[in-house]
């Protein structure tokens, strides 16, 4: 009602007894003011359409070439500043639950409203259009080449608006900008680029589930198609889904097309604005998928254009398809090319002689007549030419004849590395061109924008600072190093080129600083380089942490009594004995260190393991209070926890992939493995026949942590062994003396254990550092810890060291955290030790993607070969080893490796089938 009251004061009048009216809809205007928007289907249906043309957005931007300053003016509710003729007010009636209303001013929703308002604006600014003003309905952009002229232009525009009584909304106006967002594009002196906020809607678009949603996505993405090379070819799988009588099936090609279009929009280049009087260059290409062309001027891309082939065009011969691409370029850019000189490059050589051919079909004759309207030449360039990459790698000059072989994609890459291709007139028929950096020129040009740098230079002229001086080319340098102004855009360009480009390959901060300091200088340079390297997403994922491992040692509490708190683990992979045993169940008492070695089979069921547990442990030592173990599936299954719960035993599982939690069992298994090796070598026979003797020997060996042998700690006296034949003599098994000795031993053992834990913690913490995170932090997870990643027959050669990032949802204990894992890792326990985590340092430029590989439950994976690329023989002194070059899944050809052929045949026989 408040909105209607405000509207009633200056927009609408109350009316009674109306027979025809429409519904009224209230909408938010950019989240700030609620305005009226009417739905007038009946009125619009009978209205004669006003054919007044709206300007092409591309034409508007073309007028901005050379402009350096911009001001944007947005009219306040523009349509409402135009009155409705008295006789037509009744036609705008709308109804609400508070009554009927009529508009006195032009409402939103009328079919002719945009055309009428555009006509009004063109008449008002007719004298200034395309000189320093462009208008699109109620959006006004004032542009100028310098500050003086811009001040005059602004005065004229604002005075005109005052005279015509048109009011702007100050909160939406922007003045004196070097870069402005206008009609969904970002405009600056460099050219036109896409508006990141508009592109965000496309990037965040969820996967379409119907043809209608595909059309909506293509409509929004197509608004920026002039920024995307081969847009039609990329969108072909999606376009096919929108055709009639086609079943909607989302394939891998559709997903690839969907993601590639979003990626191209995010990385869309800045398109230059054309300059009248300079030659244009067009690169054309055609395939059975569509036609594509690129318009360039002075080595800068002005626009891309492409379209898919029509049904009848699919039958065209190659010659006609290539000619159709030329015609497409001339038609779509007619407003640029008509009356201007242009050079058309095509990779179809016969088109070069199209003007001299005598026998042409009707279609070719029609197209040739169109081409003759333009001042153009058609030249040939080979489709596989790659001279720009060669120019970069050799840093030398190339003949001008090679210029025709430049491919547009490589030119874009060259400009991305801040390089400029220029030609020199040497007076010879074959001129030369060279590659030089445009970044240095940009730095020198913008040094005047840094006031602090200018102050330092002024002091140097007065002799107050001798380090700064002026070079002959006008650049300010410090001890011969080019001074970079405090402009983040320039510094980021330098840092990106020195770190992330293909010619740098992600060096560390020290190496990067040493490299850059020879050429550049700016205040705080070393710190900014270190922060940039820390934020690099690739470095965070692949580089190891060079610092001490995180997380101090947190020992388990010392038990109160014997066999109340135990640990257990399995040792598998042993040779199968005649009894069928191929593993050992290792169970250790945490207080006395007494150990049981129980032979088992890999195939033993949980029921069989439970019987062994009762027979060997419970029957002799009683029911334990707690059991510490790893997350073996046998321990985490439903049966084992249910059994222990019924017995009253608590289960404590180690943190995921952190075997140090149960370091006692791990260390015992290491000792057991050594004993097994010695036993097999010395005593021969099956290892399980000697296992009881190994258990006897282990329990009677001195343990430094408790200060005695486990047997003595358990029974209160030393065991009679072949080493010590002392007669035990008569002794009361149950007496005050034995009870007192046992009690004293337990106290001594517990004291020794505490001292041992303190000593171990002191040693361990010297090699560790305190590392803590907060709930909500984003962290990387170490990939395949402890066991390592087996790839290409080696450990972790090309594998990423970290995956993620994932969010911390809970702190579990002093040194463990629970992570929010994706559904792909649902089988993995979500609690990890702090040493496995690495803090993610965010940056707005990061594009986080899902992991491209399928991980196992232990966070490891084995890479699969997909193709043999090459063969060779490695000749040694006494033999020759056949090698094959293998392409691995998830990796490009540049990461292919040479592997022994016999090993690959053994491991991957399907590769040779």
Automatic annotation (TrEMBL):
<dbReference type="GO" id="GO:0003677">
    <property type="term" value="F:DNA binding"/>
</dbReference>
<dbReference type="InterPro" id="IPR056924">
    <property type="entry name" value="SH3_Tf2-1"/>
</dbReference>
<dbReference type="InterPro" id="IPR036397">
    <property type="entry name" value="RNaseH_sf"/>
</dbReference>
<dbReference type="InterPro" id="IPR050951">
    <property type="entry name" value="Retrovirus_Pol_polyprotein"/>
</dbReference>
<keyword id="KW-0238">DNA-binding</keyword>
<dbReference type="Pfam" id="PF00078">
    <property type="entry name" value="RVT_1"/>
</dbReference>
<keyword id="KW-0175">Coiled coil</keyword>
<keyword id="KW-0540">Nuclease</keyword>
<dbReference type="Pfam" id="PF17917">
    <property type="entry name" value="RT_RNaseH"/>
</dbReference>
<feature type="domain" description="Integrase catalytic">
    <location>
        <begin position="553"/>
        <end position="718"/>
    </location>
</feature>
<dbReference type="InterPro" id="IPR041588">
    <property type="entry name" value="Integrase_H2C2"/>
</dbReference>
<dbReference type="InterPro" id="IPR043502">
    <property type="entry name" value="DNA/RNA_pol_sf"/>
</dbReference>
<keyword id="KW-0233">DNA recombination</keyword>
<dbReference type="GO" id="GO:0046872">
    <property type="term" value="F:metal ion binding"/>
</dbReference>
<dbReference type="InterPro" id="IPR041373">
    <property type="entry name" value="RT_RNaseH"/>
</dbReference>
<dbReference type="GO" id="GO:0004190">
    <property type="term" value="F:aspartic-type endopeptidase activity"/>
</dbReference>
<dbReference type="Pfam" id="PF24626">
    <property type="entry name" value="SH3_Tf2-1"/>
</dbReference>
<dbReference type="GO" id="GO:0003964">
    <property type="term" value="F:RNA-directed DNA polymerase activity"/>
</dbReference>
<keyword id="KW-0695">RNA-directed DNA polymerase</keyword>
<keyword id="KW-0460">Magnesium</keyword>
<keyword id="KW-0064">Aspartyl protease</keyword>
<dbReference type="GO" id="GO:0006310">
    <property type="term" value="P:DNA recombination"/>
</dbReference>
<keyword id="KW-0229">DNA integration</keyword>
<feature type="coiled-coil region">
    <location>
        <begin position="739"/>
        <end position="766"/>
    </location>
</feature>
<keyword id="KW-0645">Protease</keyword>
<dbReference type="InterPro" id="IPR016197">
    <property type="entry name" value="Chromo-like_dom_sf"/>
</dbReference>
<dbReference type="InterPro" id="IPR001584">
    <property type="entry name" value="Integrase_cat-core"/>
</dbReference>
<dbReference type="GO" id="GO:0004519">
    <property type="term" value="F:endonuclease activity"/>
</dbReference>
<dbReference type="InterPro" id="IPR012337">
    <property type="entry name" value="RNaseH-like_sf"/>
</dbReference>
<keyword id="KW-0479">Metal-binding</keyword>
<keyword id="KW-0378">Hydrolase</keyword>
<dbReference type="InterPro" id="IPR043128">
    <property type="entry name" value="Rev_trsase/Diguanyl_cyclase"/>
</dbReference>
<dbReference type="Pfam" id="PF17921">
    <property type="entry name" value="Integrase_H2C2"/>
</dbReference>
<keyword id="KW-0239">DNA-directed DNA polymerase</keyword>
<keyword id="KW-0548">Nucleotidyltransferase</keyword>
<dbReference type="InterPro" id="IPR000477">
    <property type="entry name" value="RT_dom"/>
</dbReference>
<protein>
    <submittedName>
        <fullName>Reverse transcriptase</fullName>
    </submittedName>
</protein>
<dbReference type="GO" id="GO:0015074">
    <property type="term" value="P:DNA integration"/>
</dbReference>
<dbReference type="GO" id="GO:0006508">
    <property type="term" value="P:proteolysis"/>
</dbReference>
<feature type="domain" description="Reverse transcriptase">
    <location>
        <begin position="1"/>
        <end position="187"/>
    </location>
</feature>
<dbReference type="GO" id="GO:0003887">
    <property type="term" value="F:DNA-directed DNA polymerase activity"/>
</dbReference>
<keyword id="KW-0255">Endonuclease</keyword>
């Amino acid at each position: 009602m408040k909105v209607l009251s405000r509207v009633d004061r200056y927009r609408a009048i109350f009316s009674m007894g109306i027979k025809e009216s429409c519904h009224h809809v209230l909408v938010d205007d950019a989240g700030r003011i609620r305005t009226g928007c009417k739905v007038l289907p009946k009125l619009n249906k009978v209205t004669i359409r006003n054919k007044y043309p709206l300007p092409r957005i591309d034409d508007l931007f073309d007028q901005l070439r050379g402009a350096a300053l911009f001001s944007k003016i947005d009219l306040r509710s523009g349509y409402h500043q135009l009155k409705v003729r008295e006789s037509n007010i009744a036609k705008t009636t709308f109804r609400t639950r508070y009554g009927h209303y009529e508009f006195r001013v032009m409402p939103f929703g009328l079919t002719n409203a945009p055309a009428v308002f555009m006509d009004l604006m063109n008449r008002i600014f007719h004298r200034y259009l395309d000189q320093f003003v462009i208008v699109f309905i109620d959006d006004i952009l004032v542009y100028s080449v310098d500050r003086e002229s811009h001040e005059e232009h602004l005065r004229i525009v604002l005075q005109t608006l005052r005279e015509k009584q048109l009011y702007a909304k100050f909160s939406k106006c922007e003045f004196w900008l070097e870069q402005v967002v206008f009609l969904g594009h970002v405009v600056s002196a460099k050219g036109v680029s896409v508006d990141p906020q508009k592109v965000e809607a496309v990037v965040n678009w969820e996967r379409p589930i119907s043809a209608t949603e595909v059309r909506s996505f293509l409509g929004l993405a197509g608004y920026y198609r002039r920024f995307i090379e081969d847009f039609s070819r990329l969108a072909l799988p999606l376009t096919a889904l929108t055709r009639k009588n086609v079943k909607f099936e989302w394939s891998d090609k559709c997903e690839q097309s969907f993601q590639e279009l979003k990626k191209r929009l995010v990385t869309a280049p800045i398109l230059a604005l054309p300059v009248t009087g300079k030659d244009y260059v067009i690169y054309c290409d055609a395939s059975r998928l569509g036609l594509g062309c690129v318009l360039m001027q002075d080595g800068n891309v002005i626009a891309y254009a492409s379209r898919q082939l029509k049904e009848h065009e699919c039958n065209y011969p190659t010659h006609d398809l290539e000619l159709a691409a030329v015609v497409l370029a001339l038609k779509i850019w007619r407003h640029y090319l008509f009356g201007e000189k242009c050079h058309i490059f095509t990779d179809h050589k016969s088109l070069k002689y199209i003007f001299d051919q005598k026998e042409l079909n009707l279609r070719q004759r029609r197209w040739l007549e169109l081409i003759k309207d333009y001042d153009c030449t058609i030249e040939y360039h080979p489709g596989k030419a790659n001279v720009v990459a060669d120019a970069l790698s050799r840093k030398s000059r190339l003949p001008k004849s090679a210029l025709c072989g430049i491919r547009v994609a490589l030119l874009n890459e060259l400009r991305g590395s801040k390089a400029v291709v220029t030609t020199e007139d040497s007076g010879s028929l074959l001129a030369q061109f060279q590659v030089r950096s445009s970044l240095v020129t940009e730095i020198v040009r913008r040094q005047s924008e840094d006031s602090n740098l200018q102050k330092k230079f002024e002091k140097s002229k007065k002799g107050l600072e001798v380090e700064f001086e002026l070079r002959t080319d006008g650049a300010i340098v410090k001890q011969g190093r080019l001074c970079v102004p405090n402009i983040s855009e320039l510094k980021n360009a330098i840092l990106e080129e020195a770190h992330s480009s293909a010619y740098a390959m992600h060096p560390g901060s020290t190496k990067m600083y040493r490299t850059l300091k020879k050429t550049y200088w700016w205040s705080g340079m070393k710190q900014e380089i270190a922060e940039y390297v820390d934020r690099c997403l690739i470095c965070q994922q692949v580089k190891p942490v060079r610092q001490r491992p995180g997380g101090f040692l947190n020992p388990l509490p010392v038990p109160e009594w014997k066999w109340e708190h135990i640990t257990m683990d399995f040792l598998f992979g042993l040779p199968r004995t005649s009894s069928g045993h191929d593993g050992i169940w290792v169970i250790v008492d945490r207080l006395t260190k007494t150990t049981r070695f129980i032979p088992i089979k890999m195939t033993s069921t949980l029921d069989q393991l439970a019987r062994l547990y009762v027979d060997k442990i419970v029957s002799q030592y009683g029911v334990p209070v707690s059991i510490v173990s790893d997350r073996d599936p046998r321990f985490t299954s439903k049966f084992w926890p249910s059994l222990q719960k019924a017995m009253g035993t608590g289960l404590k599982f180690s943190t995921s992939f952190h075997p140090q939690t149960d370091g006692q069992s791990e260390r015992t298994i290491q000792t057991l493995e050594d004993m097994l090796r010695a036993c097999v070598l010395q005593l021969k026979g099956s290892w399980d026949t000697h296992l009881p003797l190994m258990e006897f020997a282990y329990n009677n060996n001195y343990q430094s942590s408790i200060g005695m042998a486990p047997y003595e700690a358990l029974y209160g006296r030393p065991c009679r062994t072949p080493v010590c034949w002392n007669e035990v003599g008569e002794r009361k098994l149950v007496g005050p003396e034995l009870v007192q000795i046992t009690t004293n031993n337990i106290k001594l053992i517990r004291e020794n254990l505490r001292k041992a834990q303190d000593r171990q913690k002191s040693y361990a913490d010297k090699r560790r550092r305190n590392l803590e995170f907060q709930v909500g932090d984003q962290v990387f997870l170490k990939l395949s810890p402890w066991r390592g990643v087996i790839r290409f027959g080696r450990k972790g050669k090309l594998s990423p060291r970290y995956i993620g990032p994932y969010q911390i949802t809970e702190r579990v204990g002093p040194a463990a955290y629970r992570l929010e894992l994706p559904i792909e890792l649902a089988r993995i326990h979500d609690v990890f030790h702090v040493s496995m985590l690495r803090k993610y340092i965010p940056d707005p430029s990061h594009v986080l993607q899902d992991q491209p590989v399928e991980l196992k439950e232990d966070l490891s994976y084995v890479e699969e070969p997909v193709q043999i690329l090459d063969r060779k023989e490695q000749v040694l002194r006494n033999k020759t080893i056949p090698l094959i070059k293998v392409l691995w899944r998830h990796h490009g050809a540049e990461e292919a490796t040479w592997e022994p052929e016999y090993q690959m045949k053994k491991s991957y026989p399907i590769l040779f089938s």
